[in-house]
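To illustrate the input format used throughout this study, we show a single complete record. The first block contains the structure-token representation of the backbone; no residue identities are included at this stage. The design step must infer an amino acid for every position from geometry alone.
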């Protein structure tokens, strides 16, 4: 179903009718909700007929203010009023053959003293709601400072009251696609124009869970100072022809899982071939033996319901025993379902004594809604909405970053000489990894953390360590002897995590590398071996990512410096230059990195292993659950790789230390923050 919600600021004019008909032709909504219509009685009926609707309900305008219309034409749609108020209409919607749900259209009064009257009434509706509920419209409130641009400072108390009302009502903000702000204020001479997000869609947990693909699109503003909202509840279909494999934690609860694992694992020689074979066997086993837990749950519930109906006509010992058996099977299925949603939500805690399936399911739906990419602005500023074009735009962006030629800047570390490593340090750096180091590295990884391209999280290693440790240790030893082998485990997925709410540009997503567990073992051990030496080789001013240091120290020092400079008197002048650097880790030259590592006097073997970790990578981008084509980078480091932070601080810290020494030698004082 598609619903259009629009504060039209008056519906009686011919300009409104022309604009509205064009929106209807373009988007074809099933229900149209018009707010602040400013007309009522026979005049309202005439306008509704002129814009082409046969069915409607309304709340009369108060003179030339307010007014709410809900209009539709579909014959299979029945909308009835449950409660009506000058500022909202609460309705029940019934589609033929579908479950009924509730919808509330809101036009909150722009005057605060009138507006606050509806929050208790809507809270009462929320507290007595026993079904799926959507509430949408113009609330004339914002939740926080991110929902306003320009003008005076926000009223924090008002924002908190609105946010608290949403939480107390058990509502979930459906977010938005498109423009961040839904209302544009007037332009007064000499004053800044104000923009706010006054219009939104909210839903309770039941509605959001069933209609988990629902979206709220902010349409182009026309005629009114409010943008129309388009709420689509139908399932959004995506091309799913390249969905990556994911090991499911619930499989481990099945009594046949261990036999399937053992039969597959013990018949392969190497780790990589064993993982590939295990993936194939588990997919086949899941299809033929494990089955679809949701279909199984529905089948069991239907059988139990049938038995209970039969028992109402008389006692049947056989059916009573069968009911107990089916209930035990249902408990088993519910455990698996809880494990399924827990893994997808990747939460680390669970409330004792309660199956949190609904909680985890809701978390996933909200997370998917935030991470789903429905449209993006291209380099020309135009929106890209077609799925194939979106995929091309995303992969081309990352190819341009990681594959373009690197601009090399000559640089020598001649103004700063890091201390030498001792012979014992060097021997420890290049000593092959022992079994305890490997085990410790694997068990330090979150069991359900997002897996790499092979699809296996740390859980499978932890729960089957006795069986897997031999092949894992053999592979790690091979990588240490011949670092080129690292390539076999270095296929990486790039997950796109929004940097801001409702991003519009591809560079507003943070690319997080999802590395395979075996690769993480190597880099985690490298980090553990190098970490004790960071303090000696990174200047004291470099504070982030260094054990025992706090970035807050630099903030305090900066404030003290500014305070001191303000109080200084005399002819001698001082100046502070604040520069914001874009972190260019994804553009770092591998040659530059290698040279810096060699200048730090790391053993050649250590440098070789690190450079193989960095340079043998291949990438696939994950977006909307699908995997793009593979591409090979020529530069850059991966955010999400365990060794990422160490390399960035190690290299940049030494380079900055060299520049600082150089500046000091020329009579200049230079400093920087973490």
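Output of the design step:
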């Amino acid at each position: 179903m598609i619903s259009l919600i629009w504060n039209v600021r008056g519906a009686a004019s011919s300009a409104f009718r022309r604009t509205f008909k064009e929106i209807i032709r373009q988007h074809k909504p099933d229900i149209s909700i018009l707010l602040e219509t400013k007309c009522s009685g026979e005049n309202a009926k005439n306008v509704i007929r002129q814009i082409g609707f046969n069915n409607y309900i309304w709340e009369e305008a108060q003179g030339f203010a307010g007014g709410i219309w809900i209009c539709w034409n579909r014959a299979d749609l029945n909308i009835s009023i449950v409660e009506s108020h000058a500022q909202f209409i609460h309705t029940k919607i019934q589609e033929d053959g579908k479950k009924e749900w509730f919808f509330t259209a809101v036009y909150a009064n722009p005057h605060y003293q009138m507006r606050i009257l509806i929050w208790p009434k809507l809270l009462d509706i929320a507290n007595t709601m026993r079904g799926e509920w959507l509430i949408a419209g113009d609330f004339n409130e914002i939740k926080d400072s991110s929902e306003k641009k320009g003008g005076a400072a926000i009223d924090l108390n008002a924002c908190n009251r609105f946010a608290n009302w949403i939480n107390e009502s058990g509502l979930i903000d459906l977010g938005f696609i498109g423009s961040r702000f839904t209302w544009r204020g007037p332009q007064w001479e000499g004053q800044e124009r104000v923009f706010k997000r006054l219009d939104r869609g909210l839903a309770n947990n039941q509605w959001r869970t069933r209609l988990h693909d629902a979206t709220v699109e902010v349409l182009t503003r026309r005629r009114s100072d409010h943008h129309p909202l388009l709420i689509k509840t139908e399932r959004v279909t995506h091309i799913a022809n390249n969905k990556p494999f994911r090991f499911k934690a619930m499989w481990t609860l099945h009594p046949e899982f261990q036999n399937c694992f053992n039969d597959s694992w013990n018949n392969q020689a190497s780790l990589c071939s064993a993982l590939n074979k295990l993936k194939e066997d588990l997919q086949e086993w899941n299809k033929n033996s494990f089955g679809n837990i949701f279909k199984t749950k529905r089948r069991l519930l239907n059988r139990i319901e049938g038995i209970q109906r039969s028992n109402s006509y008389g006692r049947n010992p056989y059916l009573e025993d069968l009911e107990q058996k089916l209930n035990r099977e249902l408990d088993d299925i519910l455990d698996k379902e809880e494990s399924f949603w827990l893994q997808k939500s990747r939460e680390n805690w669970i409330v004792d004594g309660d199956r949190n399936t609904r909680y985890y399911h809701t978390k996933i739906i909200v997370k998917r809604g935030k991470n789903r990419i429905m449209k993006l602005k291209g380099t020309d500023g135009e929106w890209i909405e077609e799925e194939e074009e979106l995929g091309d735009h995303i992969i081309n962006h990352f190819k341009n970053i990681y594959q373009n030629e690197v601009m090399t800047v000559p640089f020598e570390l001649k103004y700063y000489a890091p201390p030498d490593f001792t012979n014992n340090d060097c021997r420890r750096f290049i000593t092959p990894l022992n079994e305890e180091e490997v085990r410790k590295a694997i068990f330090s990884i979150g069991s359900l953390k997002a897996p790499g391209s092979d699809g296996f999280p740390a859980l499978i290693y932890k729960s089957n360590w006795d069986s897997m440790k031999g092949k894992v240790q053999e592979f790690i030893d091979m990588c240490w002897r011949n670092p080129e082998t690292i390539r076999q485990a270095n296929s990486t997925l790039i997950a796109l995590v929004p940097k801001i709410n409702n991003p519009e540009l591809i560079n507003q997503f943070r690319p997080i590398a999802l590395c395979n567990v075996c690769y993480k073992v190597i880099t985690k051990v490298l980090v553990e071996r190098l970490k004790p030496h960071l303090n000696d080789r990174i200047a004291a001013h470099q504070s982030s990512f260094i054990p025992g240091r706090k970035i807050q120290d630099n903030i305090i020092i900066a404030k003290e410096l500014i305070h001191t400079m303000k109080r200084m008197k005399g002819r001698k002048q001082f100046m502070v230059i604040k520069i914001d650097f874009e972190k260019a880790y994804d553009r770092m030259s591998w040659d530059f990195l290698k040279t810096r590592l060699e200048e730090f006097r790391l053993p050649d073997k250590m440098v070789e292993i690190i450079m193989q970790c960095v340079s043998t990578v291949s990438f696939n981008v994950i977006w909307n659950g699908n995997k793009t084509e593979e591409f090979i980078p020529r530069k850059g480091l991966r955010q999400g790789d365990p060794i990422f932070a160490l390399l960035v601080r190690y290299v940049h810290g030494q380079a900055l230390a060299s520049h600082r020494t150089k500046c000091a030698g020329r009579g200049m004082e230079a400093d920087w923050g973490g």
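Structural context for interpreting the output: Confidence is low (pLDDT under 50) at residues 347-355, 670-674. The chain has three domains: 2-232, 249-371, 405-665.
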